[in-house]
Amino acid sequence: MQLTPSQIERFREDGFLILPSLFAPAEIAVLREAAATVFTEDDPANVREKLSGEVRTAMGLHLRHEVFARLVRHPRFVRPAMQLLGDDRLYVQQVKINTKAAFEGEIWQWHYDFATHHAEDGVPTPVALNLHVFLDDVSEFNGPLYFIPGSHKHGPAPTRLDTATTSYPLWVVDRDTVARLAAARGLVSATGPAGTALIFGDCLVHGSPPNLSPWDRRIFSVILNPIANAYTKTQRPDYKHHRALTPVAPLADDCLLAASVVAAQ
Ligand SMILES: O=C(O)CCC(=O)C(=O)O
């Protein structure tokens, strides 16, 4: 799996890529089954919504389930990340499923990931990549991510730590900055059927609305960061920024469907 020159160009221009059908329905079925298991666990890495108590984000997943241990090393994630970064020595920085339960899923405020990676974890430069795959169909109704295309080109915007809006502390971008950045090229909502993947960079401004719909919205995310750009602070728990600086090595393309993963469940 390699990105084409035009995909790389689009990533550089827009700050994100949407990759339709990157994972097949049979692979999504395996991921959904594993997701159901980790969501029932009583674990501090399952962060709950402020209002409903539903799981908002289930973190540290590659240490909690064999299926996710494989997914973070999947060549369809790892090879494009190595290609975009021009670096083969990446570590697994964060692994989660953001859920947005039907009717209850709350917002993710406008932010870019580097603000939190830098302020909380002391990551030096904004190069980490956030790779997503939709475990459910994501439409305009069930809380898709909104991207501000090109916003990464302005570099890190001013931010403030918001510990009040949701249960998840986040370094957020103010409304005037969002309005100024969105004036150039508007907004894009990242929608598509289950199996759609996203790749976006550390300075891309994004957020997502609540899920008012009767449909769950589960999205898996792995953040890969060059080992040369690793954290310098360890104030957050390991499940929010993993300490292991082991270079991630891609597995075989069929790693999610191989008999051994089924046996390990
Ligand atoms: O799940 C969402 O809606 C937001 C996810 C997000 O902001 C992120 O992965 O950085």
Could you explain how this protein is built, in words?
The structure is a single chain. The protein has 265 residues and is α+β, with helices and mostly antiparallel strands. The mean pLDDT is 96. It is 26% helix and 23% strand. It is globular. The strands form three sheets. The chain has a seven-stranded antiparallel sheet. Strands 5-12-7-10 form a four-stranded antiparallel sheet, with no helix packed on it. A hairpin with a 6-residue loop joins strand 2 and strand 3 (55-59). The structure holds 2-oxoglutaric acid. 2-oxoglutaric acid is lined by residues 98, 108, 113, 130, 145, 206, 208, 219, 221. Residues 98, 108, 113, 130, 145, 206, 208, 219, 221 line the site of 2-oxoglutaric acid.
